[in-house]
Amino acid sequence: RTKKVGLIVGSLRENSFNRMIAAAIPELDDSIVYESISIADLPLYNEDIDHGDGPEPVQRFREAIKRVDGIIIVSPEYNSGIPGVLKNALDWASTPTKTAALRRKPVGLVGATPGVKGTILSQQQIRQTLEATQAFVLPFQKMYISQVMDKVDLERRLLTDEATRKYLKRYVQQFILWIDQVPSLD
Ligand code: FNR
């Protein structure tokens, strides 16, 4: 069976740099199938509406995560941390605890910023959140993209920097190999 990886972007912005980076992934590695998983229509997390299968956008989001063999999150850093929209989405995917979509899900982290510190701090927080959900996060590789405005073609919304393309490709390939080493749910 061909592996499937879901791509989640932690920015809702249409011209998001992180969305451009996510869009480059399927063209860098076409050994598997990729699926974009949107977080844009999720309601704000509220336990009062988190019962049964939950609201319809939440159901679709959870099912999309359950269908794929792994997830790569491509996210910006806001105020030295995880963007609220992404935290909201991860919280929705963390319940109900025993059957949560993120439980035992292999996750890779990528982040891009116009700044020079490559989203280190937001990735730390995302990792911490994912550990609480019992997801597995690729432990031995990090993928930080700094000064991203110099690495893309803004008009065509493409990742053009050769070195970054090479690193990203290597990261994705490592992630795909690692998926097979993650203990399965059963
Ligand atoms: C930012 N930005 C930012 N960048 C960074 O490297 N560290 C940070 O702590 C922050 N903080 C921050 C807070 C808020 C509220 C905004 C709106 C932005 C800048 C951020 O990296 C930049 O806007 C990116 O372009 C956002 O990612 P997308 O939307 O282009 O993917």
Report what the structure shows.
Belongs to the azoreductase type 2 family. Pfam families: FMN_red. This is NAD(P)H-dependent oxidoreductase. InterPro entries: Flavoprotein-like_sf, FMN_Rdtase-like_dom, NAD(P)H-dep_reductase. The protein is an alpha/beta fold and 186 residues long. The two termini are 18 Å apart. Helices cover 34% and strands 17% of the residues. The strands form 2 sheets. Strands 1, 2, 3, 4, 5 and 6 form a 6-stranded parallel β-sheet that branches. It contains 5 helices and 8 strands. The chain has one domain: Rossmann fold (3-Layer(aba) Sandwich). Bound molecules: ligand FNR. The site of ligand FNR has 15 residues, from helix 1.
Sketch the topology as an H/E string, one letter per element. EHEHEHEHEEEEH
Give the helix tally: 5
What separation lies between the terminal Cα atoms? 18 Å
* Classification by helices and strands: alpha/beta
Protein name: NAD(P)H-dependent oxidoreductase
Domain NADPH-dependent FMN reductase-like: 4-146
Family: Belongs to the azoreductase type 2 family.
List the SSEs and their pairings.
Layout: E1 4-9, H1 17-28, E2 33-36, H2 56-67, E3 70-74, H3 84-92, E4 106-112, H4 120-132, E5 136-137, E6 143-145, E7 152-153, E8 158-159, H5 162-179
Parallel strand pairs: 1-2, 1-3, 3-4, 4-5, 4-6
Antiparallel strand pairs: 7-8
The structure holds ligand FNR.
Domain NADPH-dependent FMN reductase-like: 4-146
InterPro entries: Flavoprotein-like_sf (IPR029039), FMN_Rdtase-like_dom (IPR005025), NAD(P)H-dep_reductase (IPR050712)
Pfam families: FMN_red
